[in-house]
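User: I'm new to structure prediction. If I give you an amino acid sequence, what do you actually give back? Let's try with this one:
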Amino acid sequence: MNSLLKSFRYAAAGIIACLRCERNFRIHLTAVCCVLWMSRFYSFSRAEKALLAVVCGTVLAGELFNTAVERTVDLATQEHSPLAKAAKDAAAGGVLAAAICSVIAGVFLFGRKKPLLKCLEFFLSQPGRFLFLVLAAIGAVFFIFTDWDRLLYKREKGSHSQTF
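Assistant: Good question. You get back a string of structure tokens that encode the predicted 3D arrangement of the chain. For your 164 residues, that looks like this:
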């Protein structure tokens, strides 16, 4: 049981490290939060909710795998290598493929006009809600583009490999 708890701690540490160091992971996580919040205006079936969970989880998992591949390649070689580039590009391509598929699923799931108008009305019906939306957007930009690793741990640029 102790080793199982340790494995969960290691997994959580990997997610936190990716959250600190990887802007693209923060972008995807922000998008997932927006999707989950928007879903409250829709009456999705259980299958649609499951699809939403799978595509969101696939993109986040893909970004974690991409980071693992990038760090492993960086650890294996410091020189520019066509094979290292191909490995990194393939991992990034996997994330892009998952993100494109999730956008396509999102268009099908969220493309209905009536719930979209309901969401728009929610924000425009009261000035406080619109202000909240603007502040949330500003907060999301701050969350995404802040170099959390450098801010929290006062690391110099170029020392990302030490965080893992």
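You can read the tokens as a compact description of the fold. Here is one thing that stands out. The chain has a mean pLDDT of 90.
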